[in-house]
Amino acid sequence: MVGNDIVDLEEAKFTSHWQRPRYLEKIFTETEQQLIKNCTNPFHVVWRLWSMKEAAYKLYVQVNPSQFYSPKSFECKFEFENGNVKYKNFECQIKTSITSKYILSEARLLDDRMTSEVIEFKDKTYKNQSAVLRNALLITLSELYQLSKEDLKFQKSEFNIPTVLCNSVNIHVSLTHHGHFGAYAI
Amino acid sequence: MTNDELITKLKTIIEPYIQDEVAFKTLSEDTDFINDLKVNSANLVDIILDIEDEFNIRLENEDMEKMLDVKAAMLIINTKLKA
Prior knowledge:
In chain A, 34% of the residues lie in helices and 33% in strands. Chain A has helices at residues 9-15, 23-27, 30-38, 42-63, 126-145; strands at residues 3-8, 75-79, 82-87, 90-98, 102-108, 117-120, 152-156, 162-166, 169-172, 174-178, 181-185. The termini of chain A are close together. Chain B has one domain: Non-ribosomal Peptide Synthetase Peptidyl Carrier Protein, Chain A. At the A-B interface, helix 2 of A face helix 3 and helix 4 of B. Chain B: This is Acyl carrier protein. Chain B: Residues 1-81 form the Carrier domain.
């Protein structure tokens, strides 16, 4: 099981206004707000923490199928590329990759290497991006399991949790897109 | 405020963040922000702050937790406005 989340830094600059009043206190814990306040690049730390929370949430709902919006309750810590997120008695390990264009986090129950494949989209339409991303995921899975793409079926549960049905086995996957970037992980 | 007036105000707030025009045009109380309108979860907090500003209310963590669809948003706004 895996959860991943990508933040397109250009997109974040234009569509999210983290400096507006009350923004930070809505989604970050006191400790996280202090970290943002005292660091040299608050923009990066804001989006790093956000991608960690989202990746952890996507993993959490695979373990406990549900849907809710409670980013503040996911408590993050990080050092270098490693992170850790706690939510109630759930805990997961995070790997984060930061480039000049995006921040990508991947959550697993046990510490593991990052496996997300990143795609840069030419097109900003949600539907087209979604189709490109699913197609790339199915191609990777068909190569991995030596199956034809037609034997794989992408599906989403009532809580919007994605899986791929493969010979009557449900494989947990995670997909993310934001702005011009997307990523999938198996 | 009637439900229709409330939905109209909500639509103005949500519009900049939607990524599915068809779902937005046919928006109803059952429309889900993320699953139907494809609002990026990073923008859900922008919507929540816009709602606070527009209605001059404050949403707590437990309100935010349920803010997933139009129905829930309407219920929370109406409850806060009556309080």
